[in-house]
Amino acid sequence: MQEDRSALNVFEATDEHNIARGSGETRQAASVTGNHAPESEVVRVGLRELQERENAVEHWLRTDVAATYDAHKADPRKAKPLDEAWKRIEARMDEIDRQQDW
After folding, report:
1. Number of other CB atoms surrounding residue 93 within 10 Å
2. How far is 26 from 7, CA to CA, in rounded Å?
3. How far apart are CA 85 and CA 92, in angstroms?
4. Which of 1, 13, 39, 87 has the least CB density, counted as fewest CB within 10 Å?
5. Which helix or strand (DSSP H or E) is residue 38 part of?
6. 97, 19 contact by CB (below 8 A)
């Protein structure tokens, strides 16, 4: 069976991974002096993290992806195999996740 590699599924899988492992900031907000933070605080931190991730993805799309698209349009012979392209995309998304964990 062939794996569905739509952009939506890639982002959903990445988001599920992030939610499962949690980020440092979310864990910090959820444990204030051994107690859980108020729900509103946890939601606020989560929404801020989602916005930061969205901004990072948007920046990536406008810079790296746009440049790659322009290069492909200029010379389609330089195109990479699909499997290689997906590996590079996944690696870049992992890099963005690591940067947000700092």
Report:
1. 19
2. 25
3. 11
4. 1
5. none
6. no
Q: In degrees, to the nearest 5, what angle opens at C-alpha 53 toward C-alphas 94 and 32?
A: 100
Confidence at residue 36, expressed as pLDDT on a 0 to 100 scale = 67
Tokens matching residue 73: 């349009």
φ, ψ for residue 42, nearest 5 deg: -65, -45
pLDDT confidence band for 101 (50 / 70 / 90): confident
CB contact set of 31 (below 8 Å; sequence gap of 6+): 37
In three-state form (DSSP H/G/I as H, E/B as E, the rest C), the secondary structure along 37-94 is CCHHHHHHHHHHHHHHHHHHHHHHHHHHHHHHHHHHHHCHHHCCCHHHHHHHHHHHHH
Q: What are phi and psi of 35, to 5 degrees?
A: -105, 160
Distances (CA, A) of 79 to 4, 9, 28, 34, 66: 21, 23, 43, 52, 14
Nearest CA-CA partner of 56 in 8, 101, 5 = 101
d(CA 29, CA 50): 15
